[in-house]
Amino acid sequence: MAGKIYGIGVGPGDPELLTLKAKRILEQADVIAVPVKEPGEYSTALEIVRPVVDLHGKEIHEVVFRMDRDVERRKACRAEACGQLAGLLRDGKDIAMITLGDVAVYSTYMYVNNYLAEAGFETEIVPGIPSFCGGAARAQLTLMEGNESLAIVPSVQESGILAEALDRFENVVVMKAGGSIGRLKGMLEERKIPLQCATVLSRVGMEDEYVGPLDPGREYSYFTTVIVKKGR
Amino acid sequence: MAGKIYGIGVGPGDPELLTLKAKRILEQADVIAVPVKEPGEYSTALEIVRPVVDLHGKEIHEVVFRMDRDVERRKACRAEACGQLAGLLRDGKDIAMITLGDVAVYSTYMYVNNYLAEAGFETEIVPGIPSFCGGAARAQLTLMEGNESLAIVPSVQESGILAEALDRFENVVVMKAGGSIGRLKGMLEERKIPLQCATVLSRVGMEDEYVGPLDPGREYSYFTTVIVKKGR
């Protein structure tokens, strides 16, 4: 009988923010699949799991997703990775593929999930705490109250949608904001949104976490989140 | 020494979606505080916790938040509830107050948190899986991929922000949508967004869950969520 693949969200960083279900499935699985950009790369998701899941006797399988600029080469790399996973499933092995935060939020697992589901394999997703919920808890902030709305926008070159979100939504989460704290500060100032409405959350739950005001003088990791609450 | 209060997100319904931290803190706490609208009311959050947390010997304390139309009476009721919790904390008891989903998403706990933090008590928030992440996992959908954005909007009478979200965002989560499935269907049709782009998620993880297309003929619970993915 073929195995089953699970996509597991391991949460934002604190190993204790794994769910009971994630822990159980990781301990039952034959193979822990770890997405990496290069073979041998350090995996934050695997380090999160290690202190709370018994990995003794597990097969750790790297799933290499190269960030090649060439779309065709990227596709070929993904197809090869999925082919390897399909081989393990055909051998009857259950696979748990881990991903930082929640599976539905910017993870590569869904590509694998859809590929393997179409190939007829059984798939299941176990949600995880997304970084913005972990960050809001750490900063003791709400994301939305009463009948408020929330926009979640990645900070990228083209910032039309970020501008609209800041204009129209009471609450805005800016994801992947590490490289654009200065630009975001400018956008808030243009809109006369007081800077104390913004809270930067960088590497929450890690040893070098930063939770505080916008400070363009600092260096931030790519996975930095900013919560803007206009009503604050 | 005064006790500490924890706000605990218990996730969307499946008891196994509690985090390891939520379970530990609920088991260590002296008092489990349960928000209710009326004394003796059934608490979904408490029923979620029961199968996975040892509640033996715990003091279960109802925190009554009446949904009074009168703002002053509502405030007085909240102040009384917070005063009771402060009394328990002064007695040296640690309190874990549970809330459905994530603490930062439409929960009343944050009012309690801010009140008690201002009164000088120690507070901590343990995030939970929000309903929209639980729902996306159940339906095997992403909330956002690549550089996509997401708008999360409650379905209320005034739907200007929902209209804008549907116009501008690739992905829209409509919360509290139980009473307005017909209206939402009309808004999608007006915008020529195919109806198969919308997935309704009602009581996910519960026995009577519904995950499927928009069907205005059905009855839905208040806590129904709709995920609209225009790119689907």
Q: Quick gist of this model?
A:
The first copy, chain A, contains 7 helices and 10 strands. Chain A has helices at residues 20-28, 44-49, 71-90, 109-118, 131-138, 160-168, 181-190, and strands spanning 4-9, 31-36, 59-64, 95-99, 122-126, 150-154, 171-175, 198-202, 210-212, 224-229.
Q: Helical region count of chain A?
A: 7
* Assembly state of the chains shown: homodimer
User: Over the alpha carbons, how many angstroms does the gyration radius of chain A reach?
Assistant: 19 Å
Major beta sheet, strand line-up of chain A? 3-2-4-1-5
Query: What is the string of helix and strand elements of chain A?
Result: EHEHEHEHEHEHEHEEE
Class computed from helices, strands and strand pairing of chain A:
alpha/beta
Low-confidence stretches of chain A: none
Based on Cα principal axes, name the global outline of chain A.
elongated
Q: Report the average pLDDT across residues of chain A.
A: 94
Topology:
The structure is a homodimer of 232-residue chains.
Chain A: E1 4-9, H1 20-28, E2 31-36, H2 44-49, E3 59-64, H3 71-90, E4 95-99, H4 109-118, E5 122-126, H5 131-138, E6 150-154, H6 160-168, E7 171-175, H7 181-190, E8 198-202, E9 210-212, E10 224-229
Parallel strand pairs in A: 1-4, 1-5, 2-3, 2-4, 6-7
Antiparallel strand pairs in A: 7-10, 8-9, 8-10
Helix pairs in contact in A: 3-4
Which descriptors would you attach to this protein?
232 residues, 5-stranded mixed sheet, 5-stranded parallel sheet
Structure in words:
The structure is a homodimer of 232-residue chains. Chain A is an alpha/beta fold and 232 residues long. In chain A, 31% of the residues lie in helices and 22% in strands. Chain A has 7 helices and 10 strands. Chain A has a 5-stranded parallel beta sheet with strand order 3-2-4-1-5, sandwiched between helices. In chain A, a hairpin with a 7-residue loop joins strand 8 and strand 9. Chain A is elongated, with a radius of gyration of 19 Å. The termini of chain A are far apart. The model of chain A has no long low-confidence stretch (mean pLDDT 94). Chains A and B meet through helix 1, helix 4, strand 5, helix 5 and strand 6 of A and helix 1, helix 4, strand 5, helix 5 and strand 6 of B.
